[in-house]
Task: structure prediction
Amino acid sequence: MSELLQPLEPLIQALRRLPGVGVKTAQRMAFHMLQRDQEGARQLARALVTAVDSVRHCEKCNTFTHETVCSICRDEGRDAARLCVVETPADLAAMERTGAYRGYYFVLMGRLSPMDGVGPKDIGLPELLVRTQEPALQEVILATSFTAEGEATAHAITELLQGRSIEVTRLARGVPVGSELEYVDLGTIAHALVDRR
Amino acid sequence: MSELLQPLEPLIQALRRLPGVGVKTAQRMAFHMLQRDQEGARQLARALVTAVDSVRHCEKCNTFTHETVCSICRDEGRDAARLCVVETPADLAAMERTGAYRGYYFVLMGRLSPMDGVGPKDIGLPELLVRTQEPALQEVILATSFTAEGEATAHAITELLQGRSIEVTRLARGVPVGSELEYVDLGTIAHALVDRR
Ligand SMILES: [Zn+2]
Ligand SMILES: [Zn+2]
Result:
């Protein structure tokens, strides 16, 4: 980093902590926010602090919420026999949009990725183990991504639940291999749900 | 935006004000910062506010600085006969790294772009007109990008300075057409500087 860019360096370094942002992108972002959108910069600063301070995890399903227990987990009209395990709140939202599922969820907030230092505890597997002890539960549907890491995560959860009287199923391979659930069209997800194995 | 992602929506919307960040990227950034790097989120918030509050423009050359006049403009050992006009502080830094230039600078902080609503006042052309009234000045070297917008900007400055006893030159076309200065190798920039026309 040149001395000539030094006034912006703290901001450039901070922007690089965003995923997928390298030094050139961070420079361009810093220039833009300072030069053309200072109100946007202040808004982003406020939104970051508010989010970190006020967004919490649902005590039952682990998704982001402002409350102790999220609206889906509070919905008593759902099928308590089924629990669908997804990687992110966006995956949960995609599953809901299919209209083909009426059970509850558990959101891992990630997937196993030893290379990135993401282990079983980072994706809430201890909490999932607790959650699956509810007596009404009969089936855990694994809806992790069909990527190497998503499959490894599904495999780890299958092992975790072995020996329990719970059926562990996986979304059918109607979901294109190599893709992430949130980008898949709804019909494909719905079909994969019906064909779960 | 699904109601299920609502707790993150203010942050996602704020992240979208960063250049080149669409809704999917903003979602991924929001998840990452909340789930894996809350300290990074707080650091980014602080850096944004500090930058907006403390970074100002050099009164002489318009680059970003913490002071009234930047270190280059305060350097009295430079050639006051020459003023190099660049688009960004990163371009200024690239020019300095060549070691081939010892004059002063004017930083436009952008380039003319009517489509994006960037006009002559947004890139400091009134201030440039003032800056070029210094008696010692003999030559203005246009080092804007060799893109359509950079060429239009160079053209506008040439027109602006017409009828004054100042030579207006342009970096030679040794700089590959269609590229932005800050990404060009130093030898090419140095060569283009010598061959300026
Ligand atoms: Zn919940
Ligand atoms: Zn200056």
About this structure: The pocket of zinc ion (ligand 2) is lined by residues B 58, 60-61, 63, 69-70, 72-73 (CB under 6 Å). The first strand of chain A starts at residue 56 and ends at 57. Residues 81 and 137 of chain A are 4 Å apart (CA to CA). The beta strands of chain A are 56-57, 64-65, 79-86, 103-107, 139-142, 167-170.
